[in-house]
Every structure is written in structure tokens, then in C-alpha cells.
Amino acid sequence: MSRHILVVAELREGVLRQVSLEAVAAARLLAGASGTVSALLAGPPDSHGQALLAAGADRVVHTPERDDIGPAHTERALQAAAEAVGQLRPDAIVLGHTALGKDIAPRLAARLNAGQIADVIAIEPDGESFAFTRPIYAGKAFEKRMFTETPWVVTIRPNNFPPLARAGAASADVAAGEAALLATAGKPDLRTVVRGVMKRAAGKTDLAEAKVIVSGGRGVRGADGFKPLAELAEALNGAVGASRGACDAGYCDYSLQIGQTGKVVTPELYIACGISGAIQHVAGMSGSRVIVAINKDPEAPIFKIADYGIVGDLFEVVPLLTEEIRRLPA
Ligand code: FAD
């Protein structure tokens, strides 16, 4: 069965989010071999549209303004998405399970009187339709859900759908896709406007999308204790995270907190340094592909879920690791 799927793509500080390419991969699966994947992107045509086409989208629909779709402009993003849905009439809409996706997906579903399945980590064919897997109870269990009617609204968790490199996507195909642009019409009718956004200092790499995370807990003993972790993260081109214990102790900002009441992450490599492995922390990182734990207590619960465990002092182990990684050929 072929379907038409719309991906709502997202830019973060002018850069296309990785999860948007992953959403295209999920959309391709839902569309079927002869289906169509459209992507909605803020602002005039540019290289981001080319990236979406190269990742498997058949066409890109642009909004007039660059800041039409962004976390600070939920209403505006919602209106842009609703307008694209009105014009394109897709069978399903796929978004990243990001701050923006979480904000607009349920509103979009309500407007369309559609069902929504959030935080999807896997999609499997099931008869004529699909089963969508999502974690529940803070990752302690998984449920499979199906839609009974179209349209579908789906948000996908970052790092679970590898982006596609459309084999043989000739530049001519890409150009043809970009040529089939639609422009959303008119100024949105907004009930609120954003007067300003105060940015908190955060790492270069977004935690939710990072492929490698080096996390620190109360064992780092202070803000300075995060320095060797930041160096290891940099050597691995990753991001720094933290347990709530470290955040509560004032060693780092709460924006780094991973866990039940923090961010949920699924990197390829998670290195937990001086973190005991409380259930609330594990809820946010147990989906990581490979978990390495560094803890001086051999009985620490984190070792029960770790693929590799190092019993030792993080202040000795982490710099040694960084040194070895820096020695590896680039
Ligand atoms: P600790 O439990 O104190 O562990 C520190 C670890 O560091 C110990 O295992 C120790 O052996 C090790 N260590 C000490 N020194 C060194 C060293 N030099 N080298 C190596 N290892 C060393 N927690 C979260 O993380 N995220 C959440 O989202 C979250 N949500 C919560 C929600 C609720 C409702 C509640 C009640 C709690 C929540 N918590 C959360 C808190 C959670 O229960 C734990 O208290 C917290 O995760 C502990 O943080 P920690 O592992 O850094 O500290």
C-alpha cells in the first residue's frame, strides 16, 4: 500500500536537525515503495532542502520565513504545519520527538481529529498497516500501538531511525524535487508573539541527538570535576550529560540532566562516570547502544546495565581514556 507522508523538518540555529533526516527515513518506511514523502521546511529553498531530498524526501515544501518553524514559535510552527497538511492532505505526519515536535504534534492531531503516537523507537509492518513501538513507564516497558484511522501523527525519538542515503539520487532528481515547491500563503493569525529568547549556555552538541555522551554524577565532586569529562567528550566528538545528583549538587546546569525528570537519550555510546545508576537515571539512558560505567564502587547498580565496566577512580581513568582516544588515527 502506498501512502503520502509529510515530515515537519526542524532547523536549530540554522542547522538542519539530524532527527529530521531520521524522520524522512521513518516516513519512507511508512510511505511504501510507491508512496510519496514530502518535507516541510522553514524559509526559502537552500541546501537544507537538498539534504532532505538526498535523504529520501520526494519534495520539499517551504514556508515563506526562516523562523516559521522553531521551538520558540509553537503557534507559528503549528500554523505552518496545519497549512501544509491542508494543501498536501498527507496520510501521516512525522515529526522529531523534540521540544518542538512534542509541542505541535498533539495540537496538530487535535486539529485534524487524528490519532497520535509519540516517542516512537521502532516501526514494523503489521498487515496493511504498521505497529509503532514506544517506551512507557520511564523505559521499563514497551508498548506497540497501531492507528485505526488516517491521518496519523507520529513523533520519533532521535537516534532510532538511521538516515538513508538515497542510492543513486542523481542531482537531476534532487533539482526536480526542489522545483516542485509550494509556498504557504498569508501571514499566520497568532494569538501570542515571542518577544525574546534568553539562551542558556549549553554544549555544542545537542544531548538528545549526540552519538556519544560522557555523563558525570555526584562522583565528579564539583564543577571542576566535569573538565576531564568535557575533554573526553570533545575527543569523541560527543556531548556532556549529568545525573540529577550532579545537578542538585550545583556541579552543572540542569539542562544536562539525563533521566526520568531530565532528557531521554539514546546515543551509540554512553559513558557514565561517578554515577551510581539509580532507576531514575537509568530511565533516561538505558536505550543507549553501548554503556560504559566508570565507578570506584564495584557494587554500584550502574554495572548491572553496563556493557563494559571499569572499577576505578574516574579522575585516573577518564584522562587515560582521553589520551588513548586522542592517539587514535582520525
Ligand atoms: P550518587 O547516587 O551519590 O552516586 C555517586 C556515585 O559516584 C557512587 O556510585 C560512587 O561510588 C561514585 N563515585 C564517587 N567518587 C568516585 C570517583 N572518584 N570515581 C568513580 N566513581 C566515584 N536522577 C537522575 O540522574 N535523573 C533523573 O531524571 C532523576 N529523576 C528523579 C525523579 C525523582 C522523582 C526522584 C525521587 C529522583 C530522581 N533522580 C534522578 C535522583 C536519583 O534517584 C539519584 O538520586 C541520582 O541519580 C543519583 O545521582 P548520582 O548517581 O550522581 O549520585
Automatic annotation (TrEMBL):
PROSITE patterns per the UniProt record, alphabetical: ETF_ALPHA (PS00696)
Per UniProt, which keywords does this protein have? Electron transport, FAD, Flavoprotein, Transport
Family matches, as Pfam families: ETF, ETF_alpha
Outline the extent of the Electron transfer flavoprotein alpha/beta-subunit N-terminal domain. 5-194
Q: Which domain of life is it from?
A: Bacteria
Which ranges of the sequence are coiled-coil?
A: none
InterPro entries linked: DHS-like_NAD/FAD-binding_dom, ETF_a/b_N, ETF_a/FixB, ETF_alpha_N, ETF_asu_C, ETF_asu_C_CS, Rossmann-like_a/b/a_fold
State the similarity comment.
Answer: Belongs to the ETF alpha-subunit/FixB family.
User: What's the protein name?
Assistant: Electron transfer flavoprotein subunit alpha/FixB family protein
* Species name: Paenibacillus hodogayensis
